[in-house]
Amino acid sequence: MGIRIIGTGRCIPDKILNNDDLERMVDTSDEWIVTRTGIKERHIAAPEQSTSDLAAEAAKKALENAGITPDMIDMIIVSTITADHVFPCTAALVQQKIGAKKCTCFDTSAACSGLLYAFNAAYGMMASPLKYKRVLVIGAEKMSTLVDWSDRSTCVLFGDGAAAFVLENDENPDNPDFYVAGEVMADGSVADLLIVPAGGSAMPATHETVENKMHCIKMGGPKTFQLAVISMVSACRNVLEKAGLSPEDVVWAIPHQANRRIIDAVANKLGIPEKVYLNVDRYGNTSSASIGICLDELNRSGKIKRGDLILAASFGAGLTWAAMLIRW
Ligand code: UT7
After folding, report:
1. 232-262 burial string, b = 16+ CB within 10 Å, else e?
2. Which of 80, 198, 263, 318 is 20 to 30 A away from residue 285, measured at CA?
3. For the whole model, what pTM was predicted?
4. Gap from CA of 232 to ligand 1 centroid (Å)
């Protein structure tokens, strides 16, 4: 086999919301946000810009980067927790917006770990007898629609954005697979720690749910922080062990960009702080898009070359967590 990432793209909305802007909205300060999270600014999509618009824009750039046309795609997977609608799936909307023809389309919902879940699913389906040849994997979020802009403990954290990847199986045994090893996990016993309570079948929308902001993010921050560090470190160690590799073999480490302090704690425990890629200061937490935006920035700036080993790790609502070793 030779399943490889042949194109990457991202879409970052134009509007920037910086910490000074937030100081005017809630009782917070640039100093608190930077010290506790490392975030300086985040991008916010325009009202008319939906998640599928961000996803389609990133996908078009990834297709261009890969040098292929939309009709050559035979599956689209969108990882998102901010789908345009309850149904249809966002992937089908992206299919239409990029001009792809008939192909398999579905969404994955694993919050901030979603992109790694989607890569895992794509790789499995490409390597199986299903024989998907070219797959678009997209992480896209309009987190600003889930944020309670009066809750200082969460509104400073999130941003909008999307990243897309074209995977191709050229069936050339001389081309090593991009997927070296992975681990995708969840623990539903702590689902309440990070949740949007209303809007689903458990708590359908009513005037009361809207008034009580039950359609917005509720998070137990410190506990989430603690579990994020534990689970990402353990997943990274497990995938390195599965691959028979050590942290020294890694060229770039891309942790989910939720909080600079979480990233530092994970990197220090793994002993690879100098290998970490960071952009949390510019985008905040873009959930499913976070690792993807990092990868696209690294690719387009020429900081990674074919053969480099990249260790990605993420953590999010579910709780879910994942780590993946990629051979570029
Ligand atoms: O995407 C994956 C899931 N999410 C995460 O990974 C996020 C994980 N958690 C975190 O990143 C951190 O827990 C936060 C950044 C959310 C909070 O940082 P913290 O150091 O854990 O602060 P805390 O929640 O313990 O709050 C400390 C204080 C509190 O005041 P008191 O009770 O000590 O007087 C908060 O009310 O900071 C206060 N606070 C703020 N102050 C100014 C909370 N948010 C703010 C704010 N500005 N924005």
Report:
1. bbbbbbebbeebebebeebebbbbbbbbbeb
2. 198
3. 0.96
4. 20
